[in-house]
Design goal:
There is one protein chain. This protein has 115 residues and is an alpha+beta fold. The protein has one domain: Beta-grasp domain (Ubiquitin-like (UB roll)). The protein has 3 helices and 5 strands, in the order ββααβββα. It has a 5-stranded mixed beta sheet with strand order 2-1-5-3-4, with helices on one face.
């Protein structure tokens, strides 16, 4: 006789850089992302977090709240970007200039141009 104990799921959220909250859950087979979020109590642990507007992913791929989870899935709650990455890159390039960026930004002393 085989008894089904459910599935193990890890829920991960990073409220700020270099800080990660990881919660391991045991859910019924066929559980969805929405059910995992409700069981985790993550909104109570991180009060400013609004799960209804957050982006959710499983192993780095964006999914909806109705996505059915499998055993050992990693559910990731993404925080919103504060700056558009393209804009940030343009600003860094404007500050550094073309000589301070790219593959040949650091040169050896006495090296030829382009090396």
């Amino acid at each position: 006789m085989v008894v089904d104990m459910g599935i193990q799921v890890t829920l991960v959220y990073s409220p700020k850089p270099r800080e990660v909250r990881e919660i391991t859950l045991t859910l019924k087979v066929g559980a969805t992302v929405q059910q995992a979020l409700e069981v985790s109590g993550l909104e109570a642990l991180v009060p400013p977090l609004d799960l209804k507007t957050s982006s959710i992913g499983v192993w780095g791929g964006k999914v909806g709240f109705d996505h059915v989870l499998e055993d050992h899935d990693r559910v990731e709650v993404y925080r919103p970007l504060r700056v558009n990455p393209k804009t940030a890159r343009r600003e860094r390039f404007a500050q550094q200039g073309s000589r301070g960026a790219g593959l040949f930004a650091t040169k050896r002393s006495g090296a030829k141009a382009g090396y």
